[in-house]
């Protein structure tokens, strides 16, 4: 399984949509980042500055290479809500030497994720949100993605074959990212329905 993340893929309003669009920022995360079944998230010893980013996660259902935008949605069948945790202090050190995002995004448990839901349940753009200790901190709608899901799938598949079970993290809303600490409780929703709920330890 490959987990593929898209960086800086949201705007706050349609009026902020860039033209022309910049090239998408792509990074990968190991399977060991996945944290399922609402298991608690343990702050890793390598970081003292953990930031949450709520995201939509899309599951690839059919293998493909050089997939066209027109055919892209035939290669994905389900969506989940997840948190893409970033070790901000680790990332800052890496950036000092123009290094990659890999360790800051790829530590064990860095991707708490809900169960997947069939895309057939959604007839249009998808609303999602994150609450931290009962307070709404992030709200998103897939209409505010700079690159749409078909564009993302078409772009990635020019470089690598997408296989069933691969997951695409489509980016976090352009506002509301913050830090977590031990004892915090996070709740993520899809279309107002609670899907992911866990505690930080």
Task: Map the helices and strands.
Layout: E1 3-7, E2 25-29, E3 34-35, E4 50-52, E5 54-60, E6 76-83, E7 86-87, H1 88-96, H2 102-105, E8 111-112, E9 117-118, E10 127-132, E11 135-141, H3 149-156, E12 167-169, E13 178-179, E14 185-190, E15 193-199
Parallel strand pairs: 1-12, 3-8
Antiparallel strand pairs: 1-2, 4-7, 4-13, 5-6, 5-12, 6-9, 10-11, 10-14, 14-15
Write up this protein:
The protein is mainly beta and 201 residues long. The protein has one domain: Fumarylacetoacetase-like, C-terminal domain (Fumarylacetoacetate hydrolase, domain 2, Alpha-Beta Complex). The chain has helices at 88-96, 102-105, 149-156; strands spanning 3-7, 25-29, 34-35, 50-52, 54-60, 76-83, 86-87, 111-112, 117-118, 127-132, 135-141, 167-169, 178-179, 185-190, 193-199. A six-stranded mixed beta sheet has the order 2-1-12-5-6-9, with helices on one face. A hairpin with a 2-residue loop joins strand 10 (127-132) and strand 11. It is globular, with a radius of gyration of 16 Å. The model has no long low-confidence stretch (mean pLDDT 95).
